[in-house]
Amino acid sequence: MGKSMFTIKGNLCSERVRLGRALQKPPITQEELAKKIQFMGMEDMTALIISRIEKNQRHVCDAELLYLARALHVTMDWLVGESDVR
Length: 86
Known about the structure:
Layout: H1 14-23, H2 30-40, H3 47-54, H4 62-72, H5 76-79
C-alpha cells in the first residue's frame, strides 16, 4: 500500500495534557478533566479517552485539542509543544 498520510506517529500533546493536569491547582485527575470537557459541550469525552491520549495511543482531532486547551487553561500552541507560554 502507499505511504501513510500521518508523518507523526501518535500525537503531539500527550505529555503536555498530563503536565497540564498536574499543573492545575490542585492537580486534577483524568476523570475530572473529562468531566470538565463534557460540561463544556463535548459529551463523548471520557477518562479512557484522556488516558489513551496521554499514553499516545489515540490521535487528537482539532476540536478535541481546543477543548483540552480550554479545560486546562492553556493555549493550543503550548499543548503541542510549540510554546513554553501556557
